[in-house]
Design goal:
This protein is an alpha/beta fold. It has one domain: UDP-N-acetylmuramoyl-L-alanine:D-glutamate ligase, CATH 3.40.1190. Helices cover 38% and strands 22% of the residues. The protein has a 9-stranded mixed β-sheet, with helices on both faces.
């Protein structure tokens, strides 16, 4: 197999439509105006990788409806391979409705459809020899249903193939507020298996049952072999590497919209790791990781300068790394 053929990245998880209520302060039941935006964390990561110039495929399921077509068209426009964006004739494309209330809380309603129907059998048909990285970053992958089994199956297959495994838990309280422990338990299965993971400060403390980021990082360093990044917003990024943590400052900007910044960060890290084996990644020095994280922070910062994740990704290119 040629060298270039080994450099593809596989993202798996939900492709969905975010319906954002534009009536400020109104509950969903009172809102009249909604903005349709393509979304889903792994979908965002795939778009960011492609925008930076990487070769990437998205494994996801959408409906045979105008919204599923829109998601496939958007991915195609970024240069993401849509071979494994499957359409389900029995389920509609998944919708997430969200409104920002006057008290700052989000009013959220999840209308789950096709994304949860991606099956283990369908995912097992993917030839992992074409890929150097498998990225698991689905907010919905730990909900009950076929996608959960597909996630577990692809993880086991990735471990057997010895390709780089990346994980971003993407915890959504409104999806798991009644069963947070199952999310934590399933996340640890991936944390124990992956080579790189990204978590927010809140996720780090939740997953480790600690009350400071430093304590959380200490638990990760003690229990895991993976390199990890804990994103701290404007405070920067904490990198965990070889029994030590290193803080990298954020890029100073005036954010317009932070949607998708974490996904751009992950996409930029994976783009830079593309083509490397797990052993080669493990051998990267602190200085080399410093360049990777700094570049990823640049990608996240660029995303914050535009309204909407996909719109922001149109302004991503590897030129920003210079």
């Amino acid at each position: 197999m040629g060298e270039g053929a080994m450099k593809k990245i596989l993202c798996i998880g939900e492709a969905l439509i975010d319906m954002i209520c534009t009536d400020k302060g109104k509950a969903l039941s009172d809102g009249d105006n909604f903005l349709k935006k393509p979304g889903g964390a792994p979908t965002n990561v795939a778009a960011a990788i492609a925008a930076l110039g990487g070769q990437v495929e998205l494994a996801a399921k959408v409906g045979i409806d105008p919204f599923g077509k829109h998601l496939i068209d958007v991915m195609h426009s970024f240069g993401v391979s849509t071979k494994w964006m499957l359409q389900d004739e029995n389920h509609f494309t998944t919708f997430a409705f969200v409104s920002l209330m006057e008290n700052g809380e989000r009013d959220f309603y999840f209308n789950r459809g096709a994304d949860g129907q991606l099956s283990r059998e369908e995912v097992e048909a993917i030839d992992l020899e074409e890929f150097s990285i498998a990225h698991f970053g689905s907010a919905t992958g730990f909900l009950p249903g076929p996608l959960q089994a597909a996630y577990q199956g692809l993880l086991q297959k990735s471990l057997q193939q010895d390709i780089l495994i990346s994980f971003d838990p993407n915890y959504r309280h409104l999806l798991f507020q009644h069963d947070q422990q199952t999310f934590i338990d399933q996340s640890w299965n991936f944390l124990n298996s992956c080579h790189f993971f990204k978590v927010s400060d809140e996720e780090a403390m939740m997953l480790t049952d600690t009350n400071t980021v430093q304590h959380a990082a200490g638990v990760f360093l003690e229990k895991l072999n993976a390199v990890f990044a804990i994103t701290l917003g404007k405070e920067g990024t904490l990198l965990g590497l070889n029994d030590h943590t290193h803080l990298f400052s954020s890029i100073d900007i005036k954010p317009v919209d932070t949607t998708g910044a974490g996904d751009a960060f992950v996409g930029a890290v994976l783009y830079q790791l593309s083509g490397k084996t797990p052993e080669q990644v493990k051998a990267l020095t602190e200085k080399e990781w410093g360049v990777i994280i700094t570049n990823a922070n640049k990608a996240g910062a660029r995303t914050c300068e535009y309204m909407g994740a996909m719109e922001a990704f149109k302004h991503l290119s590897n030129d920003i790394f210079n």
